[in-house]
Amino acid sequence: MKTNEDSKKLGDKLKAARDTRKTSLHEVAKSAKISVAYLRKLESGLVNNPSPRILQRLSDVLNVPYLKLMKLIGYIPVDFNAKYSDDNRKSLEDTLDENEKNAVMAFIRYLKEGIQ
User: Fold this and answer.
1) Burial bucket for residue 99 (CB in 10 Å: 0-12, 13-18, 19+)
2) One domain for residues 14 and 50
3) For the segment 4-35, what is each residue's pLDDT rounded down to a tens digit?
């Protein structure tokens, strides 16, 4: 469940990333195809339900992992990694062939790298 605290965490991360890159609100907004006013609201924690598409564009512009932004705003549960632990994965392994298992494991590694 998303909260105002989630919005604040997301905003703080976006602003920190923009500051680190020494990029203006205008430059980031233009590159992400959003208005400066909307970016300012995002950074201030005033947007509780930002579009995942906008988060993807901001992720690309600011070089912040997309899944990290999704986790900060509460779209991905905090216990995401625990829910998909080895114990839960084992029950799936019985239904997959070897190629499918390798593909799933590669995808899980990709997700974990993006979230941290």
Assistant:
1) exposed
2) yes
3) 898 999 999 999 999 999 999 999 999 999 99
